[in-house]
Amino acid sequence: MTAQHLLGHALAALGTGLVALAALGLLRLPDAYNRINAVSKAAALGVSLVLLAVLFLMPTPTTATVLLLGTALQLLTSPFGAYAAGRAAYRSGSPLTAATHRDDLRDHE
């Protein structure tokens, strides 16, 4: 096994671990806003690492083009999706956890 394959497998394992961590955050965190944050950050980075791993395991120009475009789109759209989900949760009245001491949007709605 070459160093390139080892790096590819390591990146795939790390990315899969981050996606699993996002799933754990989705199950364990106390409110919708914390869950959205966990999923958007960890899953976006995890998917990007898995796509990068595929690039190391299948290094062709076509694969590189498709996977780099997919990674760019993942990293660009994930923050907007998280923002939209958080805004929808706030507008629907999803309660904040008791540990939250600030509500910066309360006076703006």
TrEMBL record:
List keywords of the entry alphabetically.
Membrane, Transmembrane, Transmembrane helix
Q: Which domain of life is it from?
A: Bacteria
Q: Which residues cross the membrane?
A: 6-27, 39-58, 64-85
Q: Which Pfam family, any one of them, does this sequence belong to?
A: PhaG_MnhG_YufB
Q: Does the keyword Disulfide bond apply?
A: no
Q: Which InterPro entries does the UniProt record give?
A: PhaG_MnhG_YufB
Q: Which family does it belong to?
A: Belongs to the CPA3 antiporters (TC 2.A.63) subunit G family.
Record's protein name: Monovalent cation/H(+) antiporter subunit G
The scientific name of the source species is: Streptomyces caeni
Lineage at the top is: Bacteria, Bacillati, Actinomycetota, Actinomycetes, Kitasatosporales
